[in-house]
Amino acid sequence: MDTKYEYKVCTRCLTFNHAPYIEDTLSGFSNQETTFPVVHCIIDDASTDGEQEVVKKFVYENFCIDGLTEETDDYVMLFIRHKSNVNCYFAVYFLKYNHWRVPEFKKRKEEYFVRWTEKAKYTALCEGDDYWTDSNKLQKQVDFLENNNDYTLCFSNAKLLNPDNLPCSFDAGHIEDRDYLPDEYFKTWCIPTASVLYRKEIKEVQLIKPERIMHGDIIKFLQAAKLGKIRGMSDVMTVYRINNGSATQNPQNEYKQTMKRPEFVEFIIDNFGDILDIKYLYRGLCMRYCYRSLIQPTLEGKYHDLKKAANISKVITLKFVFRNNVLMGIHAMFKIILGR
């Protein structure tokens, strides 16, 4: 154990209204068999479905409730140790109000995590509706990164849990024992978030205008790729659960939301254009401006987005105008051609 760290791993677990699932998540954390201490930071964002009560029942049954209790105007936090698994610690935040709904408080959740991730060499990810099934998950992944300094992140196979057979844009179960390149996981979204472990140092990759970020997980993966190699593991060590209303359960909604945010693709180009297929990114950026023009409420807004798209590719933009019969139609086409 590196003496400058208090824990080898810190797990980031953000959860909201996962009362039916959270016990599986907490059990997956508690069952990890490691030769090193691990702290699992769980933040409940003021759930309204009784999740906080489920979490409290679990920790009171399985943990020594004689650790640190901290209360502020924003949260109650318990820092506790498992009764039998001496390397397992929980830092549980019960938020008193939903931070996600208060724009100026959204970043506070990140501050709560940083308090614990700063004390750990590696960070693991798992949201409150997913869970770990392999009790050696963390030990296997830490052993790999400890023995391979040129790797910054590793991830594993996952089982897809979809009892209601809901539509899903994520295809689990095909991860192989090999290195994965940035274009591969950026284009196919193949990394199960709950299976990831990465080095603390990836946060040192500075980002240009990060306020444009739309999907936080893929940014971490790309930051890791800036510093080293990414490794996939074929072992099925996690479960990825599909719930009604989630982004991956409703790929059409996710697609529409992404199309409204061409600035996110500009962020990707600015920060990771050197490690990704730049032509692919610019085609995507052009189409996002085209699609956003359809939902712009004013002609001025439509002109603006189509002009932006045309500056990237006139051919793609003109095909889009004809195919979708955009409101301004031929008029817009001539404005684009003439460069006005």
Can you walk through the features of this model?
- By secondary structure, this protein is of the alpha/beta class.
- It has twelve helices and eleven strands.
- The protein is globular and about 65 Å long.
- The N and C termini lie far apart (63 Å).
Helix coverage percent: 25-40%
What is the 3D form? globular
SS field, number of helical segments: 12
**What percentage of amino acids are in beta strands?**
15-25%
Order of helices and strands: EHEHEEEHEEHEEHEHEHHHHHH
Distance between the termini: 63 Å
Structural class: alpha/beta
Give the biggest sheet. 11 strands, mixed
Total number of domains: 3
Low-confidence stretches: 246-255
Report mean pLDDT, rounded to a whole number. Answer: 88
Computed Rg: 22 Å
State the total count of DSSP E strands: 11
Overview in brief:
With 340 residues, this protein is an alpha/beta fold.
Keywords:
11-stranded mixed sheet; alpha/beta; 340 residues; 23% strand
Secondary structure layout:
Layout: E1 7-15, H1 22-30, E2 38-44, H2 51-62, E3 63-71, E4 75-82, E5 88-95, H3 108-117, E6 120-125, E7 131-132, H4 137-147, E8 151-161, E9 178-180, H5 182-188, E10 197-199, H6 216-227, E11 229-241, H7 251-259, H8 262-272, H9 278-295, H10 299-312, H11 314-324, H12 329-338
Parallel strand pairs: 1-2, 1-6, 2-5, 8-11
Antiparallel strand pairs: 3-4, 4-5, 6-10, 7-11, 8-10, 9-11
